[in-house]
Automatic annotation (TrEMBL):
Keyword Manganese: no
InterPro entries: BUG (IPR005064), Bug_dom1 (IPR042100)
Organism: Pseudolabrys taiwanensis
Signal peptide stretch: 1-29
Family indicated by similarity: Belongs to the UPF0065 (bug) family.
This protein's UniProt keywords: Signal
Matches recorded under PANTHER family: BLR1237 PROTEIN (PTHR42928:SF5), TRICARBOXYLATE-BINDING PROTEIN (PTHR42928)
The name this protein goes by in its record: Tripartite tricarboxylate transporter substrate binding protein
Amino acid sequence: MTSRLVRLSAAFTVGLVLAFASFVAPSVADDDAYPSRPITVIVPFPPGGSSDIIMRIASQKASEILKQPIIIENRPGGAGNVAAVVIKHATPDGYLLMMGHTGTHAVNPSLYTNLAFDPVKDFQPVVPLISFNNILLVPADSPAKSVKDLVALAKSKPEGLSYGSQGIGTGGHLLGELLAKHAGIKLLHVPYRGIAPAVTDAVAGRVDMIFSSYISSAGYIESGKLRMLATSGTVRHPRIPDVPTMAESGYPDVHMEQWFGLFAPAGTPRPIVDKLNAAYVASLNSDAVKDRVVPQVATVIPGTPEDLEAMMKRDIVRLGKVVKESGAQVPQ
């Protein structure tokens, strides 16, 4: 009887091991075979913008490395929240990803009430992609030739100065809040529905200043209709080496590098994340990508998933504080 029990026990154990192996093996094999079909990356902006273009450039090279098409799907709406909710509920298999950014994954948690996703819990960071700095711009006929001049001008007016942005909670808005706080000046925020009308009104002098990306204002800058006073980065950009940083202008706390990164749904297997990361890092390090990014006064920032996670968590705290101090709130 004892011998028979031993044989039965051994048979049961072997059967259990084989059953477990058959359950696990397809998952491992799937990870090894990834990708076996096209990958879709959702971009939370309309087609044709600088971020959309850069995502397409970086994905083209990554597609060659992964030997599968990478399809860019534009899904704007809700300041990126629409796209984020889609990824939150997506299958974590590496075939549906999102280009997230400072707004969606760092600012929106503080800006929106009842946000339908958690940027830390609902996403798996994959790779940091690019960053860009906003530029402090004034109309050509403004008496301010430097940040020092602009601050003095604001202090000379009881009502202060006005500044435009592409909307509440955007980089341009928060940089204005930081400048007002650290320079001790009054700034009236005028939010627009997009950057184009804000830039147009800055050129016309209907607002006194604006923080804008270079690419959104390039035509007016190059024609002399807008004057660059400083960038919001920590170092000067090689494309505009004569433009000082806000730190060099006396305001080291008025800085923001707006980053973009690739995110997958939480629970995506690490081997898949690593394959995606390696492909995009190689793409971002290629001259073909760098040569398209640098002229837009942007910077490639290839790194690890942990690098992107650290950037996100840092800005959730830092920019969340700025949002709360500004009193800005948007119902979700």
